[in-house]
Every structure is written in structure tokens, then in C-alpha cells.
Write a structure and sequence with these properties.
- The chain has 2 helices and 7 strands; from the N terminus they run βββββββαα.
- Helix content is about 20%, strand content about 30%.
- By secondary structure, it is α+β, with helices and mostly antiparallel strands.
């Protein structure tokens, strides 16, 4: 002899809702929704809407709603068979107190007599060589009697 017992795993309901800012009524996109008893959750979409389907019916669930920059909220929701339980949730902005930052500086005296270094690339040296060669050739052609040492003539000619 067997006794018919209701099978609760097949009796399900759903939860849906919207999450918004309590001060501005703006929707909170991608807010976290977590059902603690079932260890499952979801996030709101870009319009602040969420939907959690196929939850075991005839139970109370503790739902935690959290969002960065807002105080988290815990609510209790009853789920009934073949029904969608609607909840609208408002989160309050939280105040975050940061530590103060102190900037300490000192005046830097620029020493203009310091020799600075500059990075010169090979392609730039090749350009300088061509310009230097043109200057030297121009000087040699305009100055009568100018004789360059052999070392310089090899490099510019």
C-alpha cells in the first residue's frame, strides 16, 4: 500500500522585481540579488529588472540585495506554486568615509648649470651627418685657401 505524497520539487514559483535608488528613483543596473537558502543569485539587467525562475514553492526565502555605493538590504519573500512573486526594492546610497590624504612637497631649485643628457637615435645621427657634410662642403667652397685635415676630408667627401 502506498500513500500519495505531494512532490514539492515539481511545484515551483518565481520571483521578479526592480531595484532602484531610494533618493532619485533611478534604476540600479547590474545589482546583485542573492537567495541565501539556495545559494543562488542573479543580477539586474540594464533596466534594473531581475527574474529568478523555478524556485521550490511554499517557502520563505531571504534575499540579499547589494550594489556598490549603496547599503545592502535583506528582504523575505514567499514563493507560491505557479505564481510570480513581484518585489520592488529601493536601496539607499551609502556614505563612505575615506581617510584624508596629505600631500607634502618641497620646492625644487632648478640648477641651470647642470648638464643634461638627451637620447639620440641612430636615424637622427644620420640626419646630423648629412647636414654637417653640407655645411662643411659649403664652407670649403666659399673660403679660399681653407684646407681641411685628412681625417675630416675622409668623413665629409
Amino acid at each position: 500500500m502506498s500513500v500519495a505524497e505531494p512532490i514539492y520539487s515539481q511545484r515551483t514559483g518565481s520571483i521578479r522585481g526592480f531595484v532602484e535608488d531610494s533618493t532619485t528613483n533611478e534604476v540600479l543596473s547590474y545589482c546583485n540579488i542573492f537567495i541565501e537558502e539556495l545559494n543562488i543569485g542573479t543580477s539586474t539587467n540594464d533596466r534594473g529588472y531581475f527574474f529568478i525562475p523555478s524556485l521550490p514553492a511554499y517557502k520563505k526565502y531571504s534575499i540579499k540585495i547589494s550594489y556598490i555605493g549603496y547599503d545592502s538590504k535583506n528582504i523575505t519573500v514567499n514563493v507560491y506554486e505557479n505564481q510570480i512573486t513581484a518585489v520592488d526594492i529601493q536601496l539607499s546610497p551609502s556614505v563612505i568615509q575615506l581617510q584624508s590624504v596629505e600631500k607634502i612637497g618641497e620646492k625644487y631649485k632648478l640648477n641651470t648649470s647642470d648638464i643634461s643628457l638627451e637620447k639620440i637615435f641612430l636615424r637622427d645621427l644620420e640626419k646630423f651627418h648629412k647636414v654637417w657634410r653640407m655645411i662643411c662642403l659649403d664652407l670649403c667652397s666659399t673660403c679660399q685657401g681653407l684646407v681641411l685635415p685628412e681625417m675630416f676630408r675622409r668623413h665629409i667627401m
